[in-house]
Amino acid sequence: MQDDGAINLDDVSKTAFCIPYNPGEDSDDLAPPKRVLAKSLFQERDLEDGQELRFAAYRKAWKKCLDRVQTIVQELESQSVKQVVHEVRTSYISPLPGLPYPEIPVVSVINPGLGPSFLENITAQLEESSAMNSDGDVESSVIHLYPGDVPNLTTGMRTIISNFLAKGGTPDPVKRKPMAPLASYDIKYLDAWYRAWANAQGKSPNLVIVLHEFEQFDPPVMQDIFHICSGHISRLPIVFLLSMTSPSSNYLNAAYSRFTMSLLRVRNFTTPSGVRILHTILLKTFFDPEFEPDIIIGPATLQYLNDYFTRYHSSVDAILTILQLAHLKHFSSDPLTILVHSTPSVATLSRPNSSLFLQAVSARTKPSREEEDVNMDAQSLSQRAIDQVDKIRTEFYSRHRNLRVGFAVVLRMQTFLRSYYYKGLDWSADLENGNGLCDAMLDALRGSFMRDVKHLGMITKKLKRDELRRLLETLYGFFHELPSNVRSGEQEPRMHLVEMQSRLSADSNSTISVASRFSDWVTEYLGNKLVPLEECTLWDVWYTGQSPFPSELLNPSLRASIIAGLLRPYEFVENLDNHVDANSATKSIWELPDTSILFKRYLDSGKMINVYDWFESFKIVLDTQRSHLKDAANTDNATSPRKRGKGKAKQAQHETIDEEKWAVEVQARFVRAMHELDFLGFIKHTGRKADHLIRTVFEIDDAE
Amino acid sequence: MTCSFPGYEHVCFELGTLLSMHPPPFIYIQDIESVMTTFSVIGTLLRALSDESYSSISTGGVKICHARVDAIACFNARLFYEAVINSLVQFEPSWEDGCGNWESDVEMKWNENMDAFLHGLRAAHADLCSKNHKGKGKGKERAGGGYEHVRLVIVVERAERLKESLPELLVPLTRLAELARLDLSVIFISQVGWEDIRPPLGASPDPYYIDIQSPSKENIVRGLVANFEAISDAQSSYNPYHPALKPLYAHFIAILCDVCFPFTHSPQELQYIAAARWPGFVKPVLDDHLQTRDKALDEEDVDMEDDSAHTSKGELVPPTEEVRMRLNKLFNASLSTAFEALLPRLTNAADWARANEPPGELLSFPRTFMLEQAKSASKAGDDKEEGIRALPRLSKFILLAAFLASTNPPKSDLRMFGRGLDEKKRKRRVVTKSAGKGGVAKVSQRLLGPTPFALDRLIAILGALLEENDVQPDRSLSKILTIPGEYTDMEITRVSVYSNIMELTAMRLLHRTSPPERLDGPPMFRCAVSYDTALGIAKQLDVALNDLLWDPV
């Protein structure tokens, strides 16, 4: 392509050239991404195929977490889904008598946080005819409409009608082809089809139109569609299902005229939103005695998740993104994370290039110095490491289980105390607006929960007899309902509770003594349970701990990132240029790409920039660069230094370039770099002063 | 003349006479307030006129055929032609026939243009004539007269829409009789006056005007009470529309109209409110009746003399005057709450009726009971901003900044939000302008509506708000950013800020006023939340909103 498309750039007869984009030329680095994780910091002690193995482990762990979260979300939304489905199915059953005219049933679903899965759930249930209840529910034929489908009335009506026809199928073969059929956007066409279709089926299903992102629909068009449908409502059982994200429940009232509103019978349904989603997901994923996550997210990430959710983006998507990123980061940071699910075999570990890995493992797992056996061969050494790691894994998970059970007990007690109007702890276990519930989870993970536990113990001492009995019952019930594998480890508290219960019921004067006994026991019990996970050996394999979340990846500050990118391009791009040592801390200006050079000079100027001066200063830098490159090329011909982008093809033969050509090249590079800055918004054009531009960015803290 | 709604007798008489004698080719009916009722009245009238036996006697052998089309539903010319002709010949397309339109013997497509439509009209006319001639033999025997010809009446409802959707049809339609050379009359019914939709240059002839007066209260009451019979059902005795309750219903409607008539004259709206309130209003009576009947069934020896309101047969009888008075007093206050909720359709009638269903044994409650209940119900309705509360914190700040940007004049920004390096206090506006300067009093921006603002201004105000009112989360970042204001500077240029703005635009809490395809210059927005909402948000964020408003009203 290059050959036949060779352009003569020196052609003076043309004012502009089209240089076609040719991706094959210099995009070797854009090869299809390999399914591996990024290189870890401690790469030298990684196993041979460590990246692949860790990726597999990551996928397994993340899938478990994702499945759990999705199940929780489904549980959250199931209630609303059921209501909406019921409403749609019974839309035409028993309307209020005495209305002046029939209204179109409109079900508006306000779903700010749960994402599209909610609506998918609804439509799936609507279309399932088997799941119908017997109480007069009607089947539904569901079609979906997106804002793009309804640019105007004609197209909108045609889409609605053709979708229904495609969905339901055409009932009877048409006997004859009329000369002038009805228009395909005429509602009478739908009417005729519906009659024939319903007759053929022997039942009359509701016609459900799902309008996705309803706020994006053009109100004047929708208004007419509502009007047209309302004229045929007695013959076509149409139901509109509006999906909205607008949190204010009266969007319809605000956007549509009263005349249109009077044609509709709107019923609003709101899905759970806000912190309730976050709390439910976190509690049930990481603090549920029944569920054991593979990777435990540490307080730093949870804190960020809480901040991000309440501050920037309250949706399930945000939670999933952050959890996934945390998983990814965890698995890509340390080669040891390979041990999350299973330990590599003896054969793998005893390979010579695994020795560093093995050393790292055994250094962490070694019980004591004396046991070290100098003449232990690699095989037995790795066997010992494997045994140790397996033991530690079991221990770690059991510790986490203890933590979860302990936290659940605290949660139960707190809820119980609140329900009896005790002040309890200074956070609320209420999912809806539980202030500080997230902080409590963080405290539990950080191990600074003992204060709360002691406080709980103090309160329980003051409980009345009846309350104490109830509390004991509640806790016993909780232990009783634990899954069997967890319950087997919790025999002792159950026995204690039973014993205290029986003492309480046997002697009516024993309240104080039982209460104090209970208080002591519960403090001790929780103290044993709520142990920080960091105390376990090799904890950082399963637990992200205090390692910070890469928040700048998810939510960078645009301006700061762009300026930082211009000032320090080598910190952002790998392999920008091979000849420059990317690790050296400071770079002289000639080593930077053109745009960065120009930007540095930009920062040196006053409020207005004289373009010619700017160009001159740029030229000086390029001249320096040229001479440096010449020297480098002379000394080392093999790694011919090339600047990325601009004029690099010509630089290979820079010996032959005469000064004139060099000047043209400098000019071209200047113009290009300036345009790049212009696109980024750093330049404001003005006609006030000839050859001058206005800076838009000031007061940059340029360290160099 | 038949008249289906009281108060329309004159109109019916006038129009009926015109149509059956020598109708003008173009009639324009304007009704500002109750156009739906006019539609139904005229529809009934035309049906009656088309009724064969009737027209053959009174119109001297002219058969009237009519078509009603809705200008909104017929949004292009083809639909309009099809609707008129199919409706004239009362043809209904069926799926088995391939959804064809009505076709005359002459093979032609008449839905393509005006000319073809005129041919189609003539074909339809010929077809109707021939149909009538077929029936002539019988008609002669029966009524002793045949039809000389067929008269076509085309009614266009909501004719004001023709001006936007089919402007090219407006002139031909008003001259349809001369174009088609048929005995034909076109009637436009609209809420808008003819002078507002009249084509320019006098292209259309002046119509015969009929203006419909807004219905009087008495007529509406009569009309609504007359509706009762249509819905009443004597089958089950526990039925709010039992015939025995008609006198009570008449009283109820009278009270309802007393309360609501000053605000709306539309019989449909009043009927809507009545439909929502009536089941609750009559419930105590029905409950009482049920109880008595059960008692009567339980106890064999019923004292018939004592029970004046109910007969021993268990039939529902109208309640006594005293019960009626009590009901009036109990429900009077709830009528206006019903009106306030239902007229703007803040809720629908069925849901309102369910939510405001009176408790059992209501008649034994104090008379202020319903009033209190209504008050508590309206309080519960205030909780509508629940969704706004669930917004992320930054979105709330953005909304607040947008509200300020839309309300304050741009020139005031520096004074409202600017602050020097050393002084921590914001410069407040010096004095509120004195209104008595003799000039025209300036209208507050909040009453004028939100003004558009550029994205940059929104971001700048957001920065000022965050700097003053946001707590810096204790994170690692705040340790790096030590220069005052630097943290906020980072914060307002974050990706999330921009994505939140776009999300709020998608939710229509902000309106984007500049087209999305325009790349030059910053995008413009306008705030779409009300003052009350903004105040609520400010309260949640602990921002003193009134201090930040240039024109605190």
TrEMBL record, chain A:
Residues 10-339 form the Origin recognition complex subunit 3 N-terminal domain. GO terms for molecular function: DNA replication origin binding. Signal peptide: none annotated. GO terms for cellular component: DNA replication preinitiation complex; nuclear origin of replication recognition complex; nuclear pre-replicative complex. InterPro entries: ORC3, ORC3_N, ORC_WH_C. Keywords: DNA replication, DNA-binding, Nucleus. The keyword DNA damage does not apply. Belongs to the ORC3 family. This is Uncharacterized protein. It comes from Hebeloma cylindrosporum. The lineage of its organism: Eukaryota, Fungi, Dikarya, Basidiomycota, Agaricomycotina.
From TrEMBL, chain B:
InterPro entries: ORC5, ORC5_C, ORC5_lid. GO terms for biological process: DNA replication initiation. One of its GO terms (cellular component) is nuclear origin of replication recognition complex. Residues 249-294 form the ORC5 lid domain. Keywords: DNA replication, Nucleus. Residues 299-319 are annotated as: Disordered. GO terms for molecular function: DNA replication origin binding. It is found in: Nucleus. Residues 391-548 form the Origin recognition complex subunit 5 C-terminal domain. It comes from the Eukaryota. This is Origin recognition complex subunit 5. It comes from Hebeloma cylindrosporum.
